[in-house]
Amino acid sequence: IDDLSLLFVHMHHLLNEFRPHQARETLRVMMETQKRQRVETTTRFEKHLERVCDIVNTAFSDLPEITDDDMSDSDIKMEIDSQDSSNNNKSDAVNQLDRIMCSVIDSME
Predict the structure, then answer these.
(1) pLDDT-based confidence at 89, cuts 50/70/90?
(2) Is the per-residue pLDDT at 69 higher than 70?
(3) DSSP labels for 1-51?
(4) What is the rounded end-to-end Cα distance, in angstroms, of the chain?
(5) C-alpha angle with apex 51: 49 to 53, nearest 5 degrees?
(6) CA 39, 42, 43 angle in degrees (round to 5)?
C-alpha cells in the first residue's frame, strides 16, 4: 500500500509538472484559431469592400452628365429663395412666441 501511495504521489507530481506545457500548448492552439478567424474575416471584408466599390463605381458611371444647359442659375436661386423664405417665416413665428413668453414672465414679477 505504501508503494502504491508513493506511485500515486509521483504520478500526481508528474501531472502537475506537465500542466504549464499543456497550458502553453492550449494557448498556442487558441491563438492560431483566432488568427485564422481574423484572416478569414479580413478576406471576407476585402471581398465585400471590392463589391461595394464596384457597385459605387457603376452607380457613378450610370449617372447622367449635368451640363450648364440643364441647370440655369435662376433655378438654383428660386430653390434657395424658397428655402430662405420658409426659414424666415419659422423664425418670425419663434420670435413672436418668445415675445409672448417674455411678457408672461415679466407680468409674473
Answers:
(1) low
(2) no
(3) -HHHHHHHHHHHHHHHHHHHHHHHHHHHHHHHHHHHHHHHHHHHHHHHHHH
(4) 100
(5) 70
(6) 90
Amino acid at position 85, single letter: S
At 73, list the grid cell.
442659375
According to DSSP, residue 63 is labeled S
> Mean pLDDT of all residues in the chain?
80
CA distance 18 to 14: 6
**pLDDT of res. 80:** 47
CA pair distance 50, 52, nearest whole angstrom: 5
Tell me how far apart the alpha carbons of residues 47 and 52 are, in angstroms, rounded to a whole number: 9
Of 41, 23, 45, nearest in space to 33 by CA: 41
Cell of 105: 414672465
One-letter identity of residue 78: M
